[in-house]
Amino acid sequence: MILVTGAGGQIGSDLVEALRERCGEDDVLATDLTSPGGEGPGEALDVTDRPGLRKLVERRGVETVYHLAGLLSAVGEKHPDRCWEVNVNGLRNVLELAQSHGLRVFWPSSIAVFGPYTPRRLTPQVTVEDPRTMYGITKVTGELLCDYYARKLGVDVRSLRLPGIISYTTPPGGGTTDYAVEMFYAALRDEAYTCFVRPETRLPMMYMPDTLRAILLLMDADAADLHVHSSYNITGLSFSAEELAAAIRERRPSFTVRYEPDFRQAIADTWPTQIDDSHARADWGWRPAYDLDAIVDDMLAKLGARLGANAKTSPSAPKTLVQP
Ligand code: AKB
Fold first, then answer.
1. Ligand 1 in contact with 72 (CB < 6 A)?
2. Closest ligand 1 atom number to CA of residue 163
């Protein structure tokens, strides 16, 4: 049985579907603080409750955990205690069980491990990690835990430093990169968007299909090929807030954005603009497939269909899906 924690979240909801397509509906257990609805097995689970987690793992015969439960950067600044409790102690609980019960684990780290003294362009795999957010601190701590449990205790735990994720199934909740998703909702609802970072703010991003493919590629990789046990740098592409707005405006000409930076600007300013993911490419063959035009075309079509909006856009020609 595969256990997904945080299954109701942005990545969890899509990952559960992808795993069920691969392994069968009954073999993927979706959990969150309240049981995620929908098809397939689901249960309520609080990852900070170690005995509860152990009982569930034993009762369900769990072998692999995709541990996605966690608080994101902006909400973590508002609830630092909870952020530490869920992000660090929740992960430690999973790793302890992984050691005692021989589980395989995937856990997402983030570009938030980096900070103002990290090189911002082509950020290397091994570099300064000086986060200025509680979320970033929990991710650095989590990476150190993963490395320790892997090297010292032999746990098969694998991780990616994810950038901002763009997707249409479930919106992200409480991240600094959320504007990149919110813009699409506003454009499709014919609403003006107020963006909480400055137009020139450039951050690494990735489309959900690339994210799912990266997670599954990493989990499928031969352990002997993996040389990074903390967390792999990974990226799809980088663009500024205004470049995204312009790409949407090309297809939805009435779309307007006003820029009113708030506290999340200071967080974005400490993060890299572009990531060097050469270790992921060399070790397990990572290549992103989606560039900005491909993401915008697909998001407007798919999110438009979900929202029931008039998603008729004029896609830029030619379609620019980059081949992996
Ligand atoms: C956030 O903005 O908090 C996340 C992240 C980059 O980790 N999307």
1. yes
2. 6
Secondary structure letter of residue 275 according to DSSP: B
Distance 221 CA to ligand 1 centre (A): 25
**Closest residue CA from atom 1 of ligand 1:** 175
Residue 115, ligand 1, Cβ within 6 A = no
Cβ burial 114-150 (10 Å sphere, 16+ → b, else e): bbeebebeebebeeebebbbbbbbbbbbbbebbbebb
Q: Which of 71, 178, 267 to mutate to test the pocket of ligand 1 (most atoms within 8 A of CB)?
A: 178
Q: What is the dihedral of CA 215, 216, 220, 223, to 10 degrees?
A: 10
Q: Is 135 a catalytic residue?
A: yes
Q: For residue 236, which amino acid is it? A: G
Candidate of 83, 113, 134, 176 to mutate for ligand 1, largest count of ligand atoms within 8 Å of Cβ: 176
| Residue 203, strand partner residues | 239
Under DSSP, is residue 165 helix (H, G, I), strand (E, B) or coil?
A: strand
In a structure prediction context, what are the per-residue pLDDT tens digits for the chain, which is 324 residues long?
A: 999 999 999 999 999 999 999 999 999 999 999 999 888 999 999 999 999 999 999 999 999 999 999 999 999 999 999 999 999 999 999 999 999 999 999 999 999 999 999 999 999 999 999 999 999 999 999 999 999 999 999 999 999 999 999 999 999 889 999 999 999 999 999 999 999 999 999 999 999 999 999 999 999 999 999 999 999 999 999 999 999 999 999 999 999 999 999 999 999 999 999 999 999 999 999 999 999 999 999 999 999 999 985 444 433 332 323 322
Distances (CA, A) of 31 to 41, 65, 114, 191, 265: 9, 11, 30, 34, 32
Q: Could you tell me if the CB of 201 is within 6 A of ligand 1?
A: no
Domain ranges across the chain: 2-162
Fold of 2-162: Rossmann fold (3.40.50)
